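Why do we care about 3D structure at all? Because function follows from shape, and shape follows, mostly, from sequence. That is the central idea of this module. The next example makes it concrete: a single protein chain, its amino acid sequence, and then its structure expressed as tokens.
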Amino acid sequence: MILLVEDDAISRMSFAKTLRGYDYDVLEAADGAEAIHLLEQNHSTIEVVITDMALPRVNGFSVVTNVKTRWPKIPAIVISGYLSEERGHTILGPHVDVLQKPLRPSALVATVQRLAPHARGSAVTNATSTETSDLPQSKAELEAKINRSRELIEQTQKLLQKYETLLAAYTTNKDNLEK
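And the structure:
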């Protein structure tokens, strides 16, 4: 099971959906205090803690410190838009993975798989195959859009030619009427 701690509801839902898509069970917490409470109740089943750094009530640094002190066998992943990997290791120690926001779902899944290889799903394989299987469909969609754009450009050019012809005829007729 994964404990996901993120105060931004949209990000939390997105990360949880991604992880559940790879058959991971996910507990969600909206702040650090809730995360510590969930850890106290479920520490024997939690395999990885993923936490944002900037959290209300209890920040991510305190969550990670609690995990490392009270449940040292549970690995932690910190996700942050402000903390670089190097700076994260300086502050949190070398045994905490730091992922910078915005992050690719495949990077999150691959990190979870590396830290909890016995967890459900083959995340690395699934992430790679899912991304690859999406490519041909995306390529086909892009090619269809490009072809449609070309058609629209041709139609626009034809309309411009008709407009120029009509404008020239109008100008000629106007000039003839004025004489």
